[in-house]
Amino acid sequence: MRKLRHIITTALMALTLLTWSSVGWGQAIFVEDFNYEIGDLPLTSWNSANSGTAIAIENGSLSYNNYFSSGFGNYAKMYQGLDYNRSIGTINSGSVYAAILVRVSAATATGDYFLHFTQSGTTFKGRLWAKTSGTGVAFGIAKSGTTPAVNYSGEYALDTDHLIVMKYTFNSGTTSDDIVELIINPTVGDAEPAATVVASDNTTTDATSLTLFGLRQASGNAPTLHVDGIRIATTWADAVKLAVPTINASSSLSGFTYMVDEGPSAVQSFTVDGVY
After folding, report:
1. Checking phi first, is residue 266 left (phi over 0); if not, alpha (psi -120 to 50) or beta?
2. Which of 101, 218, 221, 264 is the 20 to 30 A CA-CA neighbour of 109?
């Protein structure tokens, strides 16, 4: 009897794993946890775009509740100096998301952008800004332009880890109808929420495609900040990935053990689903 119980239990476990595997494993275009030695950001995965002081890899990491790319590796300190970019392939349809952990320690009232997508060269499409009024940090978004073509959020706490998601959506109606927006501090594991901030210049010329993601260290108005846990993906779930899988299973089973000629029913079924 023990052998029969073992076989049935094992079969049920295998069924659970098979059903769970069909849910799928999310994939990002690239993930950057800055798992490098302390010093300058190396030019192994990133390319330099100009000259100046390198982005510094420092001991520590940023974290955000339930975010998969949280607390890994080290983090990068950005201020003024060398700009970097990295290939994201060629994206010209649908949406692309950049999820980033950001901790701003200082910013100016004018502000400047520190992250962006790139069509090619210096044609930036989607720029993430930071500025302050003296009590906190406001995050801004622009499709193409610079100040004053930037829409800003309300202010968030300085020296605090925030999860920022920049989204670029390709539309095919005209050559100036793509949408760039910003989602700030979402609840990881929930469906994609409404945008916190939508770019005010979304009627400017669209990108033909996006090929690079850039880290920018501006000059006089650059914010001082750390970034970590970057995830670039074409779906919300893959960018804002949940750290722990959510597993849902029906509870209508009457038992996993079947006693010959005694029951319960020899045939039972249940459903396992979830998000990973």
Report:
1. alpha
2. 101
